[in-house]
Amino acid sequence: xxxxxxxxxxxxxxxxxxxxxxxxxxxxxxxxxxxxxxxxxxxxxxxxxxxxxxxxxxxxxxxxxxxxxxxxxxxxxxxxxxxxxxxxxxxxxxxxxxxxxxxxxxxxxxxxxxxxxxxxxxxxxxxxxxxxxxxxxxxxxxxxxxxxxxxxxxxxxxxxxxxxxxxxxxxxxxxxxxxxxxxxxxxxxxxxxx
Length: 194
Description:
Elements: H1 2-23, E1 25-33, H2 40-50, E2 57-63, E3 66-75, E4 78-84, E5 90-97, H3 104-117, E6 120-131, H4 134-143, E7 150-160, E8 165-172, E9 178-185
Parallel strand pairs: 1-9
Antiparallel strand pairs: 1-2, 2-3, 3-4, 4-5, 5-6, 6-7, 7-8, 8-9
Helix pairs in contact: 2-4
């Protein structure tokens, strides 16, 4: 019995390590789709929230084994990315921000994280992520009503350590606590670049 445990434990440790490594990578593929290809529930939510507007771009996205639809649009000088599952149920609303638009306490906490984990870093994109029910998210966008809304920060950045220089995507809580970290794996282009 003791021999069996000694054999199983190293195998189990290796298996869990492999699963953990795979969970920390983000391989994303996205391509444009017509609105008619998007679930009706997602279309209704967008038009019910933003009205009948032009310039909405729809995408089908596959990211690390998960598929979703994403609407990208601009309204009231704000850039939105709204994600739905394959049935059309809203998952989150992301709004693009610049570093200088963030509150000072979140900037302080994020700066502490970056400086303590990276020799050098460069922020590529910041999005505030809003999570809640379809009704709560609609009320937030239309009336700035934050009840029932969870706010996170999704930040894409280049980070250099002693051993790595990678492109990362991190999700932080509203107070700057790290919730999730994924290495972004860029898919090779299908065309030659000169």
